[in-house]
């Protein structure tokens, strides 16, 4: 697979180079130069295939020999060894449950695949690879868990003290031997500044093989293409295809869906659902991209004021706003709308959406009613509701089953290193 940079169409990298670098040397984001058409056998819905097999077939066609077939197949089987159920809520609407991985959010797909790709890429190297991440919640635990126990990889994870939920903090601190979790006495911005400091410090980058695992790494995007295909195969859609409702923040999930469509998946439309951080809906409406500071909401993993995948999306449409509008509908919802959608889905279907999935459900339900009652809708349910107990009233809280992944979490041995919000302290830890 050859990739180019959204800032420099002439820049070229192989998939493994792009995985190792994260972002192109001159800035911008990596995108595949050509998107291979999906393997034909996947575009018939008659043979059920396990998800790791679907993943392998698409990855093999996209990577085009860069990783030997048997290695790639083993990576897919190991990365995606958890269920991916689709709940059909009524005749036209289904929820694709992307939250059965180890950290109970869809970020497990990307993080587990990335961890294994890093391990493959660094084989034969003597120095260990250090994955350095600043996190405000879900990303950090998915990356830590996705890289846990992988030989030759050391994860250093920074999170701001007092700024993550109780469950998130338990998930962040009860991890594996090759993961060091640092609780910074500061804000998320401090954590990010410290991480950027390390990447910009030649003494550190000369001595250590540093890499970042943030959401813009191409290896985190690919596995998200796979589950759109798996979902389509389970829905009885006609040739006009499925409408996907996508809870959106940094727009990685939406970008992957657009890639799947460009590879030939019959998708009728994407509904990008945001909370009040509505940069994308505003952009599609007005044509003006206006980044701004994020506001806090119930669906906090979507609290993004300058979505980092926006340049991938505009590149996929050759910067043409009209074709973007023809394919993507974007709408925003308030926290009150979100709570109402959670109550509505429970009353109608006895189904509990987490606050992120609920935003997408709300947008899908309204679109169905007003514009397309006969279409098939798939709502991407991105997180397990048990991760957000504070979003539910007492009557709902007790119907949410406690997933195995959270059982005993509070009793697991935990390790956390308190640190002042100073770059020199991080440097000392890295170089020790
Ligand atoms: C990260 C996240 C999102 C947003 O996904 P993007 O790819 O950043 O748009 C939505 N829901 C949950 C639960 C998340 O963790």
Mean pLDDT: 92
Estimated radius of gyration: 21 Å
Q: Which range does the strand content fall in?
A: 15-25%
Major sheet size, sense and barrel closure: 6 strands, mixed
Total strands: 14
Which residue ranges are poorly predicted, with pLDDT under 50 across at least 5 consecutive positions?
none
Description:
With 432 residues, the protein is α/β, with parallel strands linked by helices. Helices cover 41% and strands 17% of the residues. It has 17 helices and 14 strands. The chain has helices at residues 15-21, 51-63, 69-79, 107-121, 138-147, 166-173, 188-199, 202-207, 218-234, 252-262, 279-286, 310-316, 321-327, 335-349, 355-370, 394-397, 423-431; strands at residues 2-5, 8-14, 30-32, 86-88, 93-97, 129-134, 153-160, 179-185, 209-211, 242-247, 267-274, 328-332, 376-381, 417-420. The strands form 3 sheets. The chain has a 6-stranded mixed β-sheet with strand order 4-5-13-10-11-12. Helix 1 (15-21) crosses helix 4, helix 2 crosses helix 3 and helix 14 (335-349) packs across helix 15. The radius of gyration is 21 Å and the shape is globular. The chain starts with a strand and ends with a helix. The mean pLDDT is 92. Pyridoxal-5'-phosphate binds next to helix 10. The site of pyridoxal-5'-phosphate has 16 residues, from helix 10.
């Amino acid at each position: 697979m050859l990739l180019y940079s959204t800032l420099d169409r002439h820049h070229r990298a192989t998939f493994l180079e792009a995985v190792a670098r994260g972002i192109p040397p001159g800035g911008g984001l990596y995108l595949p130069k050509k998107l291979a058409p999906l393997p034909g056998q996947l575009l018939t819905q008659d043979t059920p295939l396990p998800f790791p097999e679907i993943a392998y077939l698409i990855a093999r066609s996209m990577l085009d020999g860069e990783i030997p077939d048997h290695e790639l197949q083993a990576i897919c089987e190991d990365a995606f060894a958890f269920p991916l159920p689709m709940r059909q809520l009524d005749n036209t609407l289904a929820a694709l449950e992307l939250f059965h991985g180890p950290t109970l959010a869809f970020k497990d797909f990307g993080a587990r695949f990335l961890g294994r790709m890093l391990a493959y890429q660094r084989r034969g190297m003597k120095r260990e690879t250090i994955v350095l991440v600043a996190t405000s919640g879900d990303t950090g635990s998915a990356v830590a868990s996705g890289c846990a126990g992988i030989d030759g990889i050391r994860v250093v994870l920074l999170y701001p003290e007092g700024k993550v939920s109780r469950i998130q903090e338990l998930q962040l601190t009860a991890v594996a031997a090759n993961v060091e979790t640092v609780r910074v006495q500061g804000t998320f911005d401090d954590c990010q500044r410290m991480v950027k400091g390390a990447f910009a410090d030649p003494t550190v980058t000369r001595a250590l093989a540093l890499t970042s695992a943030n959401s813009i790494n191409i290896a985190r995007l690919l596995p998200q293409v796979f589950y759109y295909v798996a979902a389509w195969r389970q829905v009885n859609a006609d040739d006009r295809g499925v409408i996907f409702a996508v809870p959106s923040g940094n727009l990685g999930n939406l970008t992957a869906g657009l890639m799947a469509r460009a590879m030939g998946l019959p998708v009728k439309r994407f509904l990008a659902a945001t909370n009040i951080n509505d940069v994308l809906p505003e952009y599609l409406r007005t044509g003006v991209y206006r980044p701004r500071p994020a506001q806090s909401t119930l669906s906090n993993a979507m609290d993004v004021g300058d979505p980092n995948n926006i340049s991938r999306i505009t590149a996929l449409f050759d910067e043409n706003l009209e074709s973007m509008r023809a394919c993507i509908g974007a709408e925003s919802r308030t926290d009150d709308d979100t709570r109402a959608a959670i109550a509505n889905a429970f009353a109608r279907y006895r189904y509990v959406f987490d606050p992120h999935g609920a935003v997408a459900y709300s947008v899908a339900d309204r679109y169905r009613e007003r514009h397309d009652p006969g279409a098939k809708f798939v709502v991407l349910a991105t997180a397990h509701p048990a991760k957000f107990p504070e979003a539910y009233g007492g009557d709902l809280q007790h119907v949410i089953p406690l997933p195995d992944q959270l059982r005993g979490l509070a009793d697991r041995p935990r390790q956390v290193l308190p640190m002042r919000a100073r770059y020199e302290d991080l440097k000392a830890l890295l170089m020790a």
